[in-house]
């Protein structure tokens, strides 16, 4: 800093840019209050009392799905005919498996859908070991759905057992869905597929079986 005496007062002259260039190749930064204020102002957006918001997060590229060839779904369908059965509940799992085992073995994971094409019989899954369960189920159905001349049904054109058969069919339903795992129907140890015949003099019954999976 250069100083000059004026009377008894000493005046200090700020270090100028020109003198810095003349005496030093590396000038000192300008630290005057005006310069510092201008520097701070340049770091803030104009007409804003809040700092700038952070930039949005970078979007990640989506993960590519597995190859379609390795996960392609496949279908198989077959109509199985069950010979005429007497009235009652019948375990038909062995018959079903025998008919579809060739197609079933080709599925690692999937679903088997069984659809009965009739309105006076039904499908259900129940006990596969003790046949008394089938007999008791038939007893229950006959007690809960009245039959004969005292029954209140109007539909009697096809015999006294026909309308009760329709009601029983709707109670159990005409369709089943069973998971497929490693080429097998993945049912519980004591589960079996039943065909419930609700007519006294039935005909053969058709079940459409559709397999879908990978």
Protein model, in words:
The chain is α+β, with helices and mostly antiparallel strands and 214 residues long. Helix content is 25%, strand content 29%. It is built from five helices and ten strands, in the order ββααββαββααββββ. The protein has helices spanning 17-23, 33-42, 93-104, 132-144, 162-172; strands at 2-6, 9-13, 74-82, 88-91, 109-116, 121-127, 175-181, 184-185, 191-197, 205-213. A five-stranded antiparallel beta sheet has the order 3-10-5-7-8, with helices on one face. A three-stranded antiparallel beta sheet has the order 4-9-6, sandwiched between helices. A hairpin with a 2-residue loop joins strand 1 (2-6) and strand 2 (9-13). The longest helix has 13 residues, at 132-144. The chain starts with a strand and ends with a strand. The relative contact order is 0.22. Residues 1-23 have low confidence and may be disordered.
